Amino acid sequence: MVSDREIENAVAVLRAGGLVAFPTETVYGLGADASNPEAVRKIFAVKGRPHDHPLIVHVADAVQLANWARDIPPQAGKLARKFWPGPLTLILRRAPKVSDLVTGGQDTVALRVPSHPVAQALLRAFGGGIAAPSANRFGRVSATTADHVRREFGATVDCVLDGGAADVGIESTIVDLSGAQPALLRPGWITARQLQDVLDMPLAAPGAESPRAPGTLAKHYAPQTPLLMMEADLLLELAASLTRQGERVAVLARCAHQPLLPGLVWMMAPTEAKGYAHDLYANLRQLDEAGCGTILVEAPPPDAAWLAITDRLTRAVAGSAAPEAT
Ligand code: TXA
Ligand code: MG
Fold first, then answer.
1. What is the pTM (predicted TM-score) of this model?
2. Distance (Å, rounded) from C-alpha 50 to C-alpha 57?
3. Confidence tier at 69 by pLDDT (50, 70, 90)
4. Of 121, 159, 164, which is closest to residue 146 (Cα–Cα)?
5. What is the pLDDT of residue 21?
6. Does some domain include residue 208?
7. Cβ 98 under 6 angstroms from ligand 1
8. Which of 22, 49, 58, 89 to mutate to test the pocket of ligand 1 (most atoms within 8 A of CB)?
9. Pocket flag, ligand 1, residue 216 (CB < 6 Å)
10. Closest-lying ligand 1 atom to the alpha carbon of residue 214
């Protein structure tokens, strides 16, 4: 785990305008002092991320919301009490002092209180807000271990805190509370149903008046190897036909049984959603490095518990068809 000394060093890096990669319970973040525009600018440069993609500001507790947001509606308090610290991001109207670099020039700001003990220790020692996107190059698979982060960025990140494998494994649920009705902008481990139960009102789908969440692009979370998602029977047929043509094929299976085929790299994913999400990005990275022409993913079941996983895989399929996310 991470020592007090490492936290002190990371705080010094943040105060000096540097970048610190740190674990959260969802995925690793690439953090900078949210109130230092020069530092925030580095995040975009290192990630290769367009400037109109706003960042989440991470804070130690809900009390700090007032430093970053204004006109905070009562629903924010309800959700914060139930789900913070945890894998939920709230979109609120921004306080005037929040940099345009953080918000992508929008009138809103994304805020999250992560629960990972290392993220908490860092935020408490730092005292301010840490702007952090997922610690991956733009459009690529998010990082769920410190090793993924180092491989992604090498020495360009000043400090990487190693808090072990991220527990949830996929990015936070994002709820917009800046409009007339709460809207779900990105599905995550906390489901729409859980949110509605706490809010006691239905969640809207993102509408024309919702703030843009450009990071939820159709093409995202993509390995470099072309990725296809399909039901088990079709997957087995395609794997057989591609390997017959001499292609190496990687499979991320859920229920399907491994056939004996030459050139097949078979990975059995956990069969329940929690384990599947926890391993998802590490599995995709491993299959991406297996030297195969195609990755075939067995489609998840249609249940609500798998919705966020299906969302990420669908974007990965779209993104893997193009060399860079646009
Ligand atoms: O779990 C997570 O949320 C991780 C960890 C590190 O906290 N962070 C993360 O950040 O996934 P990123 O930058 O990869 O995704 C943040 C998403 C993007 O889709 C971005 O467009 C959206 O949040 N977003 C940020 N600020 C926004 C705003 N003001 N309005 C609408 N969407 C916003
Ligand atoms: Mg991301």
1. 0.95
2. 17
3. very high
4. 164
5. 98
6. no
7. no
8. 89
9. yes
10. 21
Q: What gap in Å lies between CA 85 and CA 282, rounded to an integer? A: 24
> Quick one: average pLDDT of 287-316?
96
Q: What pLDDT, in 10s, does the model give residues 165-174? A: 999 999 999 9
Residue 215 lies in a domain: no
What's the CATH code of the domain at 266?
3.40.50.11030
Answer yes or no: is 16 within a domain.
yes
**Same domain flag for 117 and 251:** no
Query: Closest-lying ligand to the alpha carbon of 210?
Result: 1
Is the minimum distance from the CB of 89 to ligand 1 under 6 angstroms?
yes
Check whether residue 143 and residue 278 sit in a common domain.
Answer: no
Whether residue 169 sits in one domain with residue 31: yes
Looking at the CA of residue 172, tell me the nearest atom of ligand 1: 1
Place of tokens 């894998």: 87
Ligand 1 pocket member 214 (CB < 6 A): yes
pLDDT, one tens digit per residue, over 276-293 is: 999 999 999 999 999 999
> What pLDDT was estimated at residue 323?
45
Using an 8 Å Cβ cutoff, are 295 and 287 in contact? yes
Ligand 1 centre from 112 Cα, in Å?
A: 9
297 and 233 part of one domain: yes
**Cβ neighbours for 80, distance < 8 A, ≥ 6 positions apart:** 62, 65, 90, 113
The answer on 157 and 256 residing in a single domain is no
- Residues 233 and 173 both lie in one domain: no
pLDDT band at 158 (very low <50, low <70, confident <90, very high): confident
d(CA 175, CA 183): 6
pLDDT value, residue 326 = 37
- pLDDT reported for residue 290: 97
Shared domain check, 87 and 30:
yes
Structure tokens at 113: 């209180």
Domain count, the chain: 2
Residues 232 and 194 in one domain: no
Q: Which domain holds residue 182?
A: 4-199
Beta-bridge partner residues of 116: none
143 lines ligand 1 (CB under 6 A): no
